[in-house]
Amino acid sequence: MTGGEPASQFKSRSGSFHMSEPDFLVIGKLRRPHGVRGEIIMDVITDFPERIKTGSIVFVGEDHQPIKLKTIREHQKGLLVSFDNYSTPEKVGIFRNWMVYVKASDLPLLPEGEYYHHQVIGLQVIDERGNALGTVTDIVATGANDVLVVLQESGIEFLLPVVDEMVLKIDIEKGVIYARPLSGLIPEVKKSDKRESGKIQKRKISHQGYE
To answer: Rounded to 5 degrees, what angle do the CA atoms 97, 101, 104 make?
Structure first.
């Protein structure tokens, strides 16, 4: 890795905020029926749209109902898909606004140094001295590099750019990210920022910079 370059590349925003591996991951969202042949518009939420193939089995809805993709074709910024045994707008319309999933175990392996979002969200961030800095709750793509949103125990968030100088190592097995934040990156905890009456006061975060 070279200085200033992303220390890793995180794939896909889908995944749950917990340490254990999720069983299913979101790859799309069904919108509304299109035409009269049972097609429905699907927004794509994956870095691997080429894996959405005719004849493959996907899972829809909160109950992860298995269903077979019958046809797929591009439509504007998304896809038009149809399913076996759902050949009319009325039948396929029951899936309106449902999420589409695949099994996490079916995801392709990534090159070394690249991770899926669900693998990183929930990891603990510690500095070189072993001090706990917080927990990763989200990942922001800025174009230049990914940025981790880290929630401190105090309830205040800070942004940690994923560059070699600051993210030293990501250890998925141990559930830890070793970091060296720049001076001033982590906001100081003030009394007014601490939890009061059971509520968490969060400092405003700008995703354009690193406040």
So the answer is: 155
